C-alpha cells in the first residue's frame, strides 16, 4: 500500500487579491483530502501559504529571505485534522511571490524524500500571478525558472499550476500577468508540469483532479496498418465515468454493546425451481441457459467455450474514411486514447505523421480492436487525430467505438418540411431564434468558455463528499441545499440571462406556446384507440371520476343493480365511498346478474348484454384490486356453461377477447399472461 | 429469472436507464405479416445488384425473415404471425379460402418467433408452390374475396391481449394496387365496400393496418386506387406515404425494412429554454449496444428454469435483513451511515427536466467528450402546442450558426450536462438515413476525463513531431487505403451473429454450426496490392529510415520481457544442478529454499505461487510421486 503513496504540497496564494477565490480553493482542497482519506489514505499532504502576514518556513531560518510564506502544515499522512485545516485558510495581507513558494515547497519535498519517490511528488500551486516575483540575484527571471525546472526534473517532481483570473480576482497589470504566465509556461514546457487557467468558481472546483487514479493500459502492442507495417501503441482510457461510490449495506442488528461487530450484510443467493420453491438446487446441478426467442437453450460452460467466437488479440486498420461520414452521435462509449509507445521514436513519428495527415485531409481511421486474448467480442471504432501543440507531448489518437448493424434502430421521422405551415417558424420567429442562439452564448470570444467539460466537476459527487464530511462530524445532519456555485451547473446563469434579457424577451414573445386544451378529451379518445402504458394511469382516474359526477347529477344513490342499466348501476355502486361494503356488494350483485343473463338467454340473445356486464366487472375488479374475484367467477361461469350446454357463450367470449385478469394487470392475480389468454381459447374445440 | 451473476452485486440504483436498452414485455407488440402470394408476386421481378432478378415475393419474405432474426437478437417479446393470401391451400381457424397461416410445430399461430420458424420461413420459397400454391383469390364470377378473408384472419389472430398493454399491427405486403381490377360492376363496388368495412372494423378494435407496397421503377404502385381508403390515408399524408420508388432492389428493401419497425419513445422530456418557455420533446434510443441475452440458470437434470432468490444476512448475527437497509461509507475509521432517502436527495438536481444553459460553437465539442450512446430528441405538440415550431426555429438557427446547445439533464440516475447537436435530415435512395432532430450527447465531467497523454511527458527530450515529408507520405497512404462509401453501421457484430447461430443450431438439434463471416476483418487482399504495398514501404522508409525491423524487434522485447526471459534461462541453468528425483525420494525437498524450489517450477513451466508446502507438493505431483 504504502509503496503507492503520493506526496502533495499545496501552495496557496492567500494575498488580498485572492480572497474572493479562497472559499472555492478551500472546498477544492478539502475535497482532495477527503477523497484521499477514502481512496488513498497513506498519501501525504503538506500546505504552504504565501502572501501571509507572517513568515514561518525552514528556508527563511536557514538562508533568510522567503518572507510572507508560512508552512501551515508539514508533509504528513492525511487525517481528519487536515480537512479542517484546509477548510479554514487564514487570509493574508501581502502580495505573494509564487516562485518563492515553489522553492519552499520543493525544499520540503527534498528534505522529506531526497531523490526517492520519483514521479510521486507533486506541487499544486494556486495563484492569480498578479504580482511580479522578486528579481533574482543573478540572471533573468527566466533563467531562474529554467534552473528550478532542472531541479524538478532531477528530483522527479510534478507540478500543477492553477492560475485564477477573471471575475474571481479582479484587475491587474497586463504586462506583469503576461510575464508571469510566460514563466509558468516554461514549467509546463520543460517539466512534468501542467498549467490551467480558470476564470469562474465552477472551473476552479474542477481544475484539480481530486481523486488519484493510476492509469492502466487497456492494450499494448501493434497497431497494424498492414501485415508489413505495425506501429507500437499503448491504449489508455481517456474518459471513464467516475461513478457514485458504491456504498456498503449496513446492518444494525448487532447489539450496540458489541464492539467488534462488522455491521456487514452478506448476500445469499439460492437457486430454486420455480414450481418447487422448497428445493434449493446446488451449484453443480445448475447449467447456464441462453435465450433464443421464447426458448432457453441449455449449454455448459465447456461446450460454450468450444464454440463461441474467439478473435485473436490485435488492433488492425481497416482503412480511412471521411470524417463527416462518422457523425458525432454514433460514438457509443467512453473514449480511449492511442499513444505511441513511450520512448519509441519511430512509433511516435509514425503516429504523429498519420495524425497530422488525417487532420489535414479531414479523415478518420477505422480500426478493429481485440484488446485482450480471450475477449469474446470485437470492437470497431474510429481513430481521430489529437494533434498536440505542446512540444513536450507527442501526438496521439482518440478512439471512439462505433455501432454495429444490430445496435442501430432506423426509426423514421417525418421531415420538418412536411409539417403543416402553422408549425413552421415564420421569418420573424426565425430571426428571433437566430439572435437567441447567437447571443445566449457560453463561449464568448476573449473570455474563457463557460462550463467546459474538462473543468466542470460532477455536482453530485461534490455534494456527496461534502455531505460525508458533515456527517462525520454530526451523524444527524440533513442534506444541505445545493450551493450557489454548483447551482450554476444545473441552472442557467442569472447574469447571462440578465445580459440577454431583450433577446430572450423577443424570442419569447415571438412564439406562442399553450397547453393542449383537448388533451384530456383526446387522451381519453386515444385510450380506446391506442392506449399506451403511461396513459393507463390517467384512465384510472377518469373512470373513477365519471360515476361520481353521474351520482351528483342524478342525486340518487344506487343501492342495487337493476335490469335496465346494470353496467351504470354497477359503476355507481363501486364508486360509492360512504361505506366500504358497497364494493363487495356491487361485485356480488353483478355476478348474480351475469349468471342470470346467461342462464336465461335464448339462442344467445342475452350474450352481448352479459358480455358488457362482464367487461364492466372485469374493469371494476382491476380497479379495486380484486382480480381473483373476477377470475374465480369467470372460471365457474364457464364450467357452468359447459355443464349446461351453453358452451356457445364461452366461444362468444373468446371471440370478444375477454380474458382472465393476468398478473400484469392486477398484481394480486395469480394468473400469468399466457394463462389468461389461453383460458377461453382452450375450452374452444379446435377447428383444425 | 434472468440474473447475470456478475450483476448481482451491482448497486440497486446503478443505472435505471439501462433497462431501456432492452425491450420490455409490457411494451410488446403483436404483428401479423399479410403477404400477397398471388402469381403477380412471383412474376414481377426487380433487378438485384448482381444482374439477377428477384421476385417480389422473395423480397417480402426475406424482409420478414430478417426482421425475425433481428427480433431474436433484440430479445424482444413481440409476437408475430405470418399469413399468406391468394393461396391455393387454406389453413386458418375460420377455414376461409385463399388464406394460409404459416407456422411450425410447438408454436401458436401468433407467438414469439422460434428457431424453427426462422429456419422454415427462410426455406419457404422452395416448397411454396407444391405445399401452399399461388392463385388469384379475387376473380370475376366468384364471390370469393381473399383480401377480405386475409384481413379477417389477421383480426382474429390479433384478438389476444388487451389493446391496453400491446400494440397490434397488420403489415400488408403486396404489389397489386388494384386488387379488384379483374371484376366489374356492382359486384366490385360491393366487394370493395365490404373489404373496407372489414378493415375499419379491425381499426376500431385498435389494430393498425400498414401497407408495404412493392413496385418496379416503370410501374408505379398507385395507392389512391384502393389502398389509401383501406389504411386510412388522405391528402398530405398520402404524399408523404409513398416513398420514392427506388431504382435498386436494395433501396426498396431498405425502405420496407425501415417501415417495419415501430418507433418507441423512451421518455417525454420537458425542455425549459429560458424565462418560462418550455417545450415538449420525446426522446428515442436510436443507438444502443445490443448484447447477447442474459444467462438463465437451468436445472441440469430437468432443464427447468431456476429462480434466484436473494436474501440479505447480517454478518454479525445471521439474522435476515430487509432490502431497504442503511448504506454506509467507511471514512475516518468510522462507518458513516446514510439512509436511502438521503442518498436520493443528494442526487436530486432539477428532476427529470432538461434545462438549456446556453450555446457554444461546434468546435467546443471535442472528440473525447463522450461517455454513453447518444439519445435522439424530436419535438411533440401533444401536450404543449407550439413546441414543434420553437424546436424547428432553434434547429435551423443552430445548423446555420454551427452551434450546439449545452443543457443540464436532471435524470434521476445521473444528472448530467448534455450537448444538443442539431442534425439535418439526410435522405438517400433507400429512404431517410438521418432523421431531423437533435442528438443529446452526454458530456463528461472533469472527474471523468483523464489526462493520459501527459503521463509520459518527456522530462527533457521534446517529443518529436512528424516532418512535412513524413506527413506527405502519410497522406499518400491515407489516399491509398481510403474506404469509399463507408457507412458507420455496415458491419454485423460477429460475436452476436456467432452467439445466435450457435443457439439456433442447438435449438434445432443440428450438429454443424454454420460459419459466420467476420465482416470486420481487414481486406488482406487489398492490402497486398502492389500500389498499397508501395506507399506503405515509402511511409515506412520516411518514418523509420532503414531500421524499421530493428526498431520493432527492440520494441517487442521490452525491458521487462527481457528480464523475464533472462530469469527463465537462469532457472533452467540452475535447475540442472539439482538431482530432483533423489531429493524428492529422500524427502529432502523441504531442506531447500523457496528460491531453489522455484528453479524447478520455472524450468518446468509450472505456477510459482503459494507457500513452500504448496510448491513442494506441486513438484511432487509433477514428478508423479
From TrEMBL, chain A:
Q: Which domain of life is it from?
A: Eukaryota
List GO BP terms, alphabetically: DNA recombination; double-strand break repair via nonhomologous end joining; telomere maintenance
**InterPro entries linked to this entry:** DNA_bd_Ku70/Ku80, Ku80, Ku_C, Ku_C_sf, Ku_N, Ku_PK_bind, SPOC-like_C_dom_sf, vWFA_dom_sf
The record's annotation in SMART domains points to: Ku78
A single MF term (Gene Ontology): damaged DNA binding
Q: Which GO terms describe its cellular component?
A: Ku70:Ku80 complex
User: Does the keyword field hold Transit peptide?
Assistant: no
Entries under Pfam families matching the protein: Ku (PF02735), Ku_C (PF03730), Ku_N (PF03731), Ku_PK_bind (PF08785)
Reaction(s) the record says it catalyses: ATP + H2O = ADP + phosphate + H(+)
According to the entry, every stretch annotated as the Ku domain falls at 278-419
Where found? Nucleus
According to its UniProt record, the EC number is 3.6.4.12
Q: Where is the composition biased (Basic and acidic residues)?
A: 526-543
Alphabetized, the UniProt keywords read: ATP-binding, DNA damage, DNA recombination, DNA repair, DNA-binding, Helicase, Hydrolase, Nucleotide-binding, Nucleus
**Which portions of the sequence form the region Disordered?**
522-556
Decide whether keyword DNA repair is in the record: yes
What SUPFAM superfamilies does the record tag this protein with? Answer: C-terminal domain of Ku80 (SSF101420), SPOC domain-like (SSF100939), vWA-like (SSF53300)
Record-stated family = Belongs to the ku80 family.
What function does the entry list? Single-stranded DNA-dependent ATP-dependent helicase.
Q: What is this protein called?
A: ATP-dependent DNA helicase 2 subunit KU80
Organism whose genome encodes this protein: Rubus argutus (Southern blackberry)
From TrEMBL, chain B:
Biological process (GO) annotations held by this record are: DNA recombination; double-strand break repair via nonhomologous end joining; telomere maintenance
Q: What is its EC number?
A: 3.6.4.12
**SMART domains annotated for this entry?**
Ku78, SAP
Q: Does the keyword DNA repair apply?
A: yes
According to its UniProt record, where is this protein located?
Answer: Nucleus
Keywords of this entry: ATP-binding, DNA damage, DNA recombination, DNA repair, DNA-binding, Helicase, Hydrolase, Nucleotide-binding, Nucleus
GO CC term (a single one): Ku70:Ku80 complex
- Keyword DNA damage on entry: yes
InterPro entries from the UniProt entry? DNA_bd_Ku70/Ku80, Ku70, Ku70_bridge/pillars_dom_sf, KU70_core_dom, Ku_C, Ku_N, SAP_dom, SAP_dom_sf
Q: Which domain of life is it from?
A: Eukaryota
Q: Which residues form the SAP domain?
A: 589-623
Pfam families to which the protein is assigned, alphabetical: Ku (PF02735), Ku_C (PF03730), Ku_N (PF03731), SAP (PF02037)
- What is the protein's given name? ATP-dependent DNA helicase 2 subunit KU70
Amino acid at each position: 500500500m504504502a509503496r503507492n503513496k503520493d506526496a502533495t504540497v499545496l501552495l496557496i496564494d492567500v494575498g488580498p487579491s485572492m480572497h474572493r477565490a479562497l472559499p472555492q480553493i478551500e472546498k477544492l482542497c478539502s475535497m482532495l483530502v477527503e477523497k484521499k482519506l477514502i481512496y488513498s489514505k497513506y498519501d501525504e499532504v503538506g500546505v504552504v501559504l504565501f502572501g501571509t502576514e507572517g513568515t514561518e518556513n525552514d528556508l527563511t531560518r536557514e538562508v533568510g529571505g522567503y518572507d510572507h510564506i508560512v508552512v501551515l502544515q508539514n508533509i504528513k499522512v492525511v487525517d481528519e485534522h487536515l480537512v479542517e485545516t484546509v477548510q479554514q485558510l487564514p487570509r493574508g495581507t501581502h502580495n505573494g511571490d509564487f516562485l518563492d513558494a515553489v522553492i519552499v515547497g520543493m525544499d520540503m519535498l527534498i528534505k522529506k524524500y531526497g531523490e526517492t519517490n520519483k514521479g510521486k511528488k507533486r506541487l499544486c500551486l494556486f495563484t492569480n500571478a498578479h504580482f511580479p516575483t522578486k528579481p533574482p540575484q543573478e540572471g533573468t527571471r527566466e533563467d531562474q525558472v529554467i534552473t528550478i525546472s532542472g531541479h524538478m526534473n532531477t528530483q522527479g517532481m510534478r507540478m500543477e499550476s492553477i492560475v485564477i483570473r477573471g471575475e474571481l480576482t479582479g484587475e491587474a497589470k497586463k504586462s506583469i500577468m503576461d510575464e508571469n504566465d510566460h514563466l509558468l509556461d516554461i514549467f509546463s514546457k520543460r517539466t512534468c508540469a501542467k498549467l490551467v487557467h480558470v476564470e469562474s468558481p465552477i472551473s476552479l472546483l474542477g481544475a484539480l483532479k481530486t481523486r488519484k487514479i493510476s492509469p492502466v493500459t487497456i492494450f499494448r502492442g501493434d497497431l497494424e496498418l498492414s501485415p508489413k507495417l505495425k506501429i507500437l501503441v499503448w491504449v489508455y482510457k481517456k474518459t471513464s465515468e467516475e461513478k457514485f461510490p458504491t456504498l456498503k449495506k449496513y446492518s444494525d442488528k448487532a447489539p450496540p454493546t458489541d464492539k467488534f461487530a462488522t455491521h456487514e450484510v452478506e448476500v445469499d443467493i439460492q437457486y430454486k425451481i420455480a414450481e418447487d420453491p422448497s428445493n434449493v438446487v446446488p451449484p453443480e446441478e445448475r447449467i447456464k441457459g441462453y435465450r433464443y426467442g421464447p426458448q432457453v437453450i441449455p449449454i455448459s460452460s465447456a461446450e460454450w467455450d468450444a464454440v463461441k467466437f474467439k478473435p485473436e488479440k490485435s488492433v488492425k486498420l481497416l482503412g480511412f474514411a471521411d470524417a463527416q461520414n462518422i457523425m458525432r452521435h454514433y460514438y457509443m462509449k467512453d473514449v480511449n486514447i492511442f499513444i505511441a509507445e513511450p520512448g519509441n521514436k519511430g512509433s511516435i513519428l509514425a503516429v504523429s505523421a498519420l495524425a497530422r495527415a488525417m487532420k489535414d485531409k479531414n479523415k478518420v481511421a477505422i480500426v478493429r480492436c481485440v484488446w485482450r486474448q480471450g475477449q469474446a467480442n470485437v470492437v470497431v471504432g474510429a481513430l481521430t487525430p489529437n494533434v498536440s501543440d505542446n512540444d513536450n507531448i507527442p501526438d496521439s489518437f482518440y478512439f471512439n467505438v462505433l455501432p454495429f448493424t444490430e445496435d442501430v434502430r432506423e426509426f423514421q421521422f417525418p421531415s420538418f418540411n412536411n409539417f403543416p405551415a402553422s408549425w413552421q417558424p415564420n421569418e420573424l420567429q426565425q430571426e428571433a431564434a437566430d439572435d437567441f442562439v447567437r447571443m445566449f452564448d457560453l463561449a464568448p470570444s476573449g473570455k474563457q468558455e463557460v462550463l467546459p467539460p474538462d473543468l466542470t466537476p460532477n455536482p453530485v459527487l461534490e455534494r456527496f463528499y461534502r455531505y460525508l464530511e458533515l456527517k462525520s462530524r454530526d451523524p444527524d445532519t440533513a442534506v444541505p441545499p445545493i450551493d450557489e456555485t454548483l447551482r450554476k451547473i444545473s441552472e442557467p446563469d442569472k447574469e447571462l440571462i440578465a445580459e440577454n434579457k431583450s433577446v430572450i424577451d423577443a424570442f419569447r414573445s415571438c412564439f406562442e406556446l399553450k397547453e393542449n386544451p383537448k388533451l384530456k378529451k383526446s387522451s381519453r379518445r386515444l385510450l380506446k384507440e391506442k392506449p399506451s402504458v403511461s396513459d393507463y394511469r390517467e384512465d384510472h382516474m377518469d373512470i373513477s371520476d365519471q360515476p361520481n359526477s353521474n351520482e351528483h347529477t342524478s342525486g340518487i344513490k344506487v343501492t342495487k343493480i337493476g335490469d335496465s342499466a346494470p353496467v351504470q348501476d354497477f359503476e355507481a355502486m363501486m364508486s360509492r365511498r360512504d361505506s366500504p361494503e358497497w364494493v363487495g356488494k356491487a361485485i356480488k350483485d353483478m355476478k348474480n346478474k351475469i349468471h342470470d343473463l346467461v342462464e336465461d338467454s335464448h339462442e344467445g340473445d342475452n350474450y352481448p348484454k352479459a358480455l358488457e356486464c362482464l367487461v364492466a366487472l372485469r374493469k371494476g375488479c382491476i380497479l379495486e384490486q380484486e382480480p381473483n374475484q373476477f377470475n374465480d367467477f369467470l372460471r365457474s361461469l364457464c364450467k357452468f356453461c359447459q355443464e349446461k350446454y351453453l358452451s356457445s357463450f364461452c366461444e362468444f367470449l373468446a371471440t370478444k377477447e375477454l380474458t382472465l385478469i393476468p398478473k400484469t394487470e392486477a398484481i394480486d392475480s395469480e394468473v400469468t399472461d399466457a394463462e389468461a389468454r389461453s383460458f377461453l381459447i382452450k375450452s374452444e374445440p379446435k377447428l383444425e | 429469472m434472468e440474473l447475470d451473476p456478475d450483476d448481482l452485486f451491482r448497486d440497486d440504483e446503478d443505472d435505471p436507464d439501462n433497462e431501456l436498452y432492452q425491450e420490455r414485455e409490457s411494451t410488446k407488440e403483436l404483428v401479423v405479416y399479410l403477404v400477397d402470394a398471388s402469381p403477380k408476386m412471383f412474376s414481377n421481378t426487380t433487378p438485384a445488384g448482381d444482374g439477377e432478378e428477384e421476385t417480389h415475393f422473395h423480397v417480402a419474405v426475406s424482409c420478414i425473415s430478417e426482421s425475425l432474426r433481428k427480433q431474436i437478437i433484440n430479445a424482444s417479446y413481440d409476437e408475430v404471425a405470418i399469413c399468406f393470401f391468394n393461396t391455393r391451400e387454406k389453413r386458418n381457424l375460420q377455414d376461409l379460402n385463399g388464406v394460409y397461416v404459416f407456422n411450425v410445430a410447438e408454436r401458436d399461430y401468433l407467438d414469439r418467433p422460434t428457431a424453427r420458424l426462422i429456419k422454415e420461413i427462410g426455406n419457404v420459397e422452395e416448397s411454396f408452390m407444391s405445399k401452399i400454391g399461388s392463385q388469384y383469390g379475387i376473380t370475376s364470377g366468384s364471390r370469393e374475396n381473399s383480401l377480405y378473408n386475409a384481413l379477417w384472419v389477421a383480426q382474429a389472430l390479433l384478438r389476444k391481449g388487451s389493446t391496453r398493454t400491446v400494440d397490434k399491427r397488420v403489415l400488408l405486403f403486396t404489389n397489386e394496387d388494384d386488387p379488384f381490377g379483374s371484376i366489374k360492376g356492382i359486384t366490385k363496388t360491393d366487394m370493395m365496400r365490404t373489404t373496407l368495412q372489414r378493415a375499419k372494423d379491425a381499426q376500431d378494435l385498435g389494430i393498425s393496418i400498414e401497407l408495404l407496397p412493392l413496385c418496379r421503377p416503370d410501374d408505379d404502385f398507385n395507392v389512391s386506387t384502393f389502398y389509401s381508403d383501406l389504411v386510412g390515408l388522405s391528402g398530405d399524408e398520402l404524399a408523404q406515404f409513398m416513398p420514392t420508388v427506388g431504382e435498386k432492389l436494395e433501396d426498396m428493401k431498405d425502405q420496407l425494412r425501415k417501415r417495419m419497425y415501430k418507433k418507441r419513445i423512451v421518455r417525454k422530456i420537458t425542455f425549459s429554454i429560458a424565462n418560462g418557455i418550455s417545450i415538449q420533446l420525446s426522446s428515442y434510443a436510436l443507438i444502443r449496444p445490443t448484447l447477447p441475452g442474459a444467462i438463465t440458470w437451468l436445472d441440469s437434470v430437468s432443464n427447468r428454469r431456476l429462480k434466484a432468490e436473494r436474501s440479505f444476512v447480517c454478518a454479525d448475527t445471521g439474522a435476515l435483513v430487509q432490502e431497504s437497509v442503511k448504506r454506509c461509507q467507511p471514512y475516518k475509521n468510522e462507518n458513516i451511515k446514510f439512509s436511502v432517502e438521503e442518498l436520493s436527495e443528494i442526487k436530486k438536481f432539477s428532476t427529470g427536466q432538461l434545462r438549456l444553459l446556453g450555446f457554444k460553437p461546434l468546435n467546443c465539442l471535442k472528440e473525447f467528450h463522450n461517455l454513453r450512446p447518444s439519445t435522439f430528441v424530436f419535438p411533440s405538440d401533444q401536450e404543449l402546442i407550439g413546441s414543434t415550431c420553437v424546436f424547428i426555429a432553434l434547429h435551423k438557427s443552430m445548423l446555420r450558426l454551427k452551434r450546439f446547445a449545452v443543457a443540464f439533464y436532471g435524470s434521476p440516475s445521473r444528472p448530467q450536462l448534455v450537448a444538443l447537436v442539431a442534425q439535418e435530415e439526410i435522405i438517400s435512395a433507400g429512404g431517410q438515413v438521418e432523421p431531423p432532430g437533435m442528438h443529446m450527447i452526454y458530456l463528461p465531467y472533469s472527474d471523468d476525463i483523464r489526462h493520459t497523454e501527459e503521463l509520459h511527458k518527456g522530462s527533457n527530450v521534446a517529443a518529436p513531431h512528424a516532418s512535412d515529408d513524413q506527413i506527405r507520405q502519410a497522406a499518400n497512404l491515407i489516399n491509398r487505403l481510403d474506404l469509399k462509401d463507408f457507412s458507420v453501421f455496415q458491419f454485423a457484430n460477429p460475436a452476436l451473429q456467432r452467439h445466435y447461430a450457435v443457439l439456433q443450431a442447438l435449438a434445432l438439434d443440428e450438429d454443424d454450426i454454420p460459419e459466420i463471416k467476420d465482416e470486420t476483418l481487414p481486406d488482406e487482399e487489398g492490402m497486398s496490392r502492389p500500389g498499397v504495398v508501395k506507399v506503405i514501404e515509402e511511409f515506412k522508409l520516411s518514418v523509420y529510415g532503414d531500421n524499421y525491423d530493428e526498431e520493432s524487434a527492440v520494441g517487442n522485447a521490452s525491458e521487462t520481457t527481457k528480464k523475464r526471459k533472462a530469469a527463465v534461462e537462469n532457472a533452467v541453468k540452475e535447475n540442472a544442478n539439482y538431482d530432483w528425483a533423489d531429493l524428492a525420494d529422500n524427502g529432502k525437498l523441504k531442506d531447500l529454499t523457496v528460491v531453489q524450489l522455484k528453479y524447478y517450477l520455472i524450468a518446468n513451466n509450472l505456477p510459482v505461487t503459494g507457500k513452500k508446502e504448496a510448491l513442494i507438493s506441486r513438484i511432487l505431483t509433477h514428478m508423479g510421486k
